[in-house]
Each structure stands twice: as C-alpha cells, then as structure tokens.
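Chapter summary example.
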Amino acid sequence: MRAAAASAGRGSALALVPTMGALHAGHLALVAAARRAAPVVAASIFVNPRQFGPHEDLASYPRDEEGDLAKLREAGCDLVWMPSVEVMYPPGSVTAVEVAGPPAEGWEGTHRPGHFRGVATVCAKLFLQTGAAVALFGEKDWQQLQVVRRMVRDLDLPVRIEPVPTVREADGLALSSRNRFLTAEERARAPRLAAELHRAAAALADRRPAAPVLSAAVEALTGAGFSVDYFALVEAESLRPIEALGDEPARLVAAARLGRVRLLDNIAVPPRSGG
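The structure predicted for these 275 residues follows.
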C-alpha cells in the first residue's frame, strides 16, 4: 500500500476515506470531498471485528466488494486498500489505542463497550499504513468523528481530520449501510428520528429547558415504534451532556432501534439567541 501510494502520488499528499464497505452515496460524498482535499485519493474497505461487540452484527454486516470497487472507480478514487484481518491484526497482535475519556464516554461508548477502542486502533493503523495527510469522516457518526479527532491530537499523528456533512434521503433519513435491512414498513417510519431531532432543535432555539424537550422526543419516538437508546443535548466536541442551550456549539445526538436496525443520527443546534 505504501509503495502504491508513493507511486501514485509522486510525493503528493494522499486523502483517505476509511470505510467498512457496502458503499452508498454518503461514502461517495466523502470521496468527492477527498478529491478536493488532496491530489491522490485512497479508500479503505475493512470490516473491523474489533469494533463489534459479541452480540452485534459482524457476521451479517453487508458486504459488496465488486459493487464497492465499481463505485470507487467511477467516483475517481485512485487506490483501494483492502487488508485482511490477518494483515490488519497479525498473529500475536496485542496493542490497542483507547481514548479513555471524553468524547468516548457515554452514548455509543456506553451502549457499545469497547467499540471506540476498536475504532481508534483501526484508524491509527490505517493512517500509518497509508501515510494519509488528510482523512475524511462523515458527521452522521458524530461521536466517532470526535473520538478520532481526539486520538489524532493526543498522539500527534500527522493527519488532518476533515468532517463531511451527513448525506440524507429526500425524506430526511441519514444514509447508512444498515438501512437496507429495514422492512418497507420500517423504512416508512425511519425518517421520524430526523424529524424529532429537528423538532427538538427548534424547541431549544425558543429557549425552552432541555429536559422536557428531550423527554417529549423520546416519548414521540417510542410511540412510533422505536426503542430509544438515547436522545441527548451535548457539547459538540466533548459530548458531555448539557442541561440548556448556551453560547457554545451544541449537538443533538440520538440512537434508536427500529426492528433489527439501529439508527444513529445527530444535528447541530444553533447557539442560544439573545433576547
């Protein structure tokens, strides 16, 4: 991979789009952003076993190697890095990278213990394997984005992390590889999660206390058939929960199950207006 990157770039900077495959328009938006960020674009496809818990969907995670490669070729990706588990984690490999505080605490960190240790470890390895100068991450996985940013800062890794806005369907549903597992009836209900995020953001902009706004959103989603893991107002960078909208950047983050699919979403909340 390093030799291929050096040959393709001839000294130029490389932009990396890390993925687990099953690519959709959201991933291709990352590739488009990568093409604007650096002369050479690489994508990685690796379903990382270390970020899945013992009862999560590693075995059933969607895979489409041939389709993914065709999409990346059409999108103008120069290189694709597809390591095996044995290449990524050679026999005897025991080292892991862990962000042992905010922003990895709470939310996904609570509901998926060990998940961010797997994310941080594989991202550190991908950055070093490819020699990327910049890496592109979607804002849909907001907590993951902040964890990777924190890890890069703390370890002085020479890679710039660039966020890319969430890509959505016309009805507001955030794109995800797992959406293909929604039934037709569940797919019709799924946009309710984004709708409740926007409804809550509007209520908070009216200077309402956060707690009743968040409770109302959870109640609405539960009534619509969702099983809600969390629906919270947090500091944008640390993801610490906050009780009211202030002058600093904030985010509404949510995770909820609909049938067999766990949906994640988040939106920015404008700072409190004066008055």
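To summarize the output: Residues 177-268 form a domain with the Pantoate--beta-alanine Ligase; Chain: A,domain 2 fold (CATH 3.30.1300.10).
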